[in-house]
Amino acid sequence: MSGAPGSRWPWIIVHAVLIQVLTYAVRPGLSFAVLEAGGQEAVIGLLATSFALPALLLALPAGRLTDGRGERTIAVLGSVLLVAAIGIALVSLQSVAGLMVAALVLGVGHLLSIISEQTAVANRSKVGSRESAFGLYTLAASIGQTLGPLLLAIPNPAGPGPNLQLVFWCAMGAAVLLGVASLFLGSGSRGDSTAKRPGSFTSSRKILREPGAFRAVVAGGIAIASVDVTLAFWPALSTQPGVSAALVSLMLTSRALATLASRAALPSLSRRLSRRMLLLISLGAAAVTLALTGLPIGPIWLVVAAVLYGFAIGVTQPITMAWLTDVAPEDQRGLALSLRLVGNRLAQSLIPAGAGLLTPLTGGGGVLVAIGASLAAAATVAYTQKKRE
Fold this sequence. Notes:
The chain is mainly α. It has one domain: MFS general substrate transporter like domains (Growth Hormone, Chain: A), CATH 1.20.1250. The chain is built from 14 helices and no strands. It has helices at 9-36, 41-69, 71-90, 96-123, 130-150, 164-183, 200-208, 213-233, 245-264, 266-272, 275-293, 299-313, 316-327, 333-384. It is globular, with a radius of gyration of 19 Å.
């Protein structure tokens, strides 16, 4: 591994902030663009699937390539794809098909960027301190998630929605800066050692047989899919009386701030509660509060529910990252984290698409209630997870 153990941390943090800023601005921006281009609410579910499904096929190979070639190479490639995705969105504001393509390319670029930076964190942390390391990393990500939705509050002089051209141009600037940060990310490359290791699927099966690993992947996948649903379907609430685009932006920003707070508190929480108990409590609370955002409870209570949901859901990602990193061999950490991303992307592909099919029957609010029920199922999975003390 190049450099001193902590020498690349500032660049990892910058990278984590930038990728979330552009993602949390562009993805809801694409939902607004689809609606403005004449797409129906059901199409938003397909937009989320366009972001998640292609990358599902690439996650394991990308994780294995990261282990062999190093984080820097994969990060640079990811940033190039993100620039391309935003460029496609800018020239496709009136084309639903073009916006779908933009979401697809965005998903691949996002996947490569996330795998590279998570592997960098894993390679620069030690057993026993990984909750704190991934907590710091996800705290940085939360800062980006807080800043990104603020761009959606930029007024559009031509209509009631956000100024999408300006949003996408700001995101383009973030993507260019991300490419610069990628050059300084460092590399844990082991040359051609990937040729000497078992295949991706053989190694993945071995990792999943470790205590609690499979359940952590399942619970984490449902949790991250629920966040995706808020990005896709909270904008759709703006079609309801009393819910403006500015209120949706406030909900997204409040959720991100609450998630930031919960990750800052994670080191203290992890000293008092086991991973299993933290997952159970956080997922159960998130189930209730997300379902509330789908009910006609008024603007103030929508923001309160978004805050409580954000705090509850915030601890699931660092816990599952630390869990899988601990059970993986040292030279397969990228693969282990990409395996987690496969679970995430599978959930991100199936759950929003299924949610989109529900919209003609239940509307966007009913979808949010249904996803809240899926989080309750994830809490049950966490409860049955064996302790790994």
